[in-house]
Design the sequence.
């Protein structure tokens, strides 16, 4: 079912504005899902969709540039609701994120880190704002649309 213009505006207004606090991450990719989700939620969701997590330092918060890139991708991806979710986390506020080896390896670096979750595991990571590289990896990680994998 296609979203109305008002529903799409509401969804875009709240898309990818997660806030990390007390070990939980607010779920902004689905405005109807409720205000708070924890790391286990994103890992569980990765069994259904590719989950892209921007891991950012608490003092700088999510990047406005990244938010706009995620919003554009969300609009560009066919059936995005059933294929991708975007999140953000401050590793200082979410212990499960802080303990991920990819996050530990990047902890002294101020560049953003993007972790792609798929099937309950970290499928990959991208350090720095390499939007084309991250999009390529996301495209490989997303579930196929029905009929995409069928032979012609």
Sequence:
């Amino acid at each position: 079912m296609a979203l109305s213009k008002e529903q799409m505006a509401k969804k875009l207004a709240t898309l990818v504005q997660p806030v990390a606090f007390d070990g939980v991450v607010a779920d902004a990719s689905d405005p109807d899902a409720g205000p708070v989700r924890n790391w286990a939620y994103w890992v569980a969701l990765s069994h259904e969709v590719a989950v892209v997590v921007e891991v950012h330092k608490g003092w700088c918060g999510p990047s406005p540039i990244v938010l706009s890139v995620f919003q554009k991708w969300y609009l560009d991806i066919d059936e995005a609701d059933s294929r991708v979710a975007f999140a953000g986390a401050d590793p200082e506020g979410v212990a499960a994120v802080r303990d991920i080896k990819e996050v530990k390896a990047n902890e002294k670096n101020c560049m953003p880190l993007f972790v792609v979750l798929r099937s309950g595991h970290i499928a990959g990571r991208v350090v720095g704002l390499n939007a084309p590289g991250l999009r390529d990896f996301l495209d490989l990680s997303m579930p196929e649309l029905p009929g995409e994998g069928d032979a012609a």
In short: Strands lie at 20-21, 24-25, 37-38, 50-55, 84-89, 113-118, 121-127. The CA atoms of residues 9 and 34 lie 18 Å apart.
